[in-house]
Amino acid sequence: MGCDRVNPKFYRILMEIVISHNINPIDPARPTFIGEVSGIDLTRHLSDAEVAAVHAGMDRFGVLVFHDQHLDDEQQIAFSRQLGPLEEATGDIMSEKDRRLSMELNDISNLDKHGELLPRDDRRRLFGLGNLLWHSDSSFKDVPAKYSLLSARKIPSTGGNTEFADMRAAYDALDDATKAEVHDLICSHSQIFSRGILGFDDFTDAERAKWAPVRQRLVRRHPNTGRLSLYLASHAGGIEGWPMPEARSFLRDLNEHATQRQFVYAHVWRPWDLVMWDNRVTMHRARRYDPKEVRDMRRTTLSNEVSSLEQWAN
Ligand code: OGA
Ligand code: MN
């Protein structure tokens, strides 16, 4: 099942930490996807044991949900830094003078820097609609994202869920011939590809140069658990050595496979939820909501520190 390299001793220690720190599966029918964490206050400095528990929970569940975390920006950044080095929000289209938040925060809202709703046809809003497509954060960067931490400050009255797909389970469910076929493939990822899917091609020359395609493995092995997962994203627009239509149709098939309902959890937000996911083993997407309602979410992002090319599948 693709778990042959998992170290049983590592898993036993992982489970002990997870159980002793109140991290429980949200859905008992899916005991290894999405953990709910209780008894931890993310606004203050965490102990080493708490930091270890968060990492262990991430290794086990891929996504962790924390409720009632009344974080301000500084506290969110401080907590995120306790887990590892952050990446900067260089993937968004916002110019320096238009930014509402500091470079450590990705602005996942529909607001301008004065806190006003963006007009429906605003370029920044239309670019942000790329989040409605299944993706893994920053796969368009040479060194992509590790964890993303999304804090819900204000949510719309309806809609705007975030869905997560378990790419470990999706990999395990492939047939053997497909596993062999994908094993060593390299994809090219760019935000120009993902926005192109939605018909957004309003890029400057500087943006096109900044977001030139990067290479990522299609199959990654998690460095701690040893599990394999599919590394897919809307940003993936080609497979090295493959004719384009064949590459794109195969990637569509794989995405369709990986986002079947049995692999997907839909998070219905409450204000002050913090949801953290491991971009190495999941994809996610936003769901639509009324553009006349405010949705203010802020994301800090941990860097993977190395390219996926350095996380060999074999
Ligand atoms: C993100 C993202 C989805 C959402 O923060 O990276 O894709 O529901 N968010 O806002
Ligand atoms: Mn995202």
Structure notes:
Helix 2 (48-61) links the parallel strand 2 and strand 3. Helix 1 crosses helix 2 (48-61). With 314 residues, the chain is α+β, with helices and mostly antiparallel strands. It has helices at 8-20, 48-61, 73-83, 123-128, 167-172, 176-182, 191-197, 205-210, 244-258, and strands spanning 23-25, 35-37, 63-66, 106-109, 145-154, 162-166, 186-189, 214-217, 219-221, 228-230, 236-239, 264-267, 274-278, 282-286, 296-303. It is built from nine helices and 15 strands. It has one domain (8-310): Double-stranded beta-helix, CATH 3.60.130. A seven-stranded mixed sheet has the order 1-2-3-13-5-15-4. It has a three-stranded antiparallel sheet with strand order 12-6-14. The protein has a three-stranded antiparallel sheet with strand order 8-7-11. It is globular. 27% of the residues lie in helices and 22% in strands. The structure holds N-oxalylglycine and manganese (II) ion (MN). Manganese (II) ion binds at residues 131, 135, 137, 284.
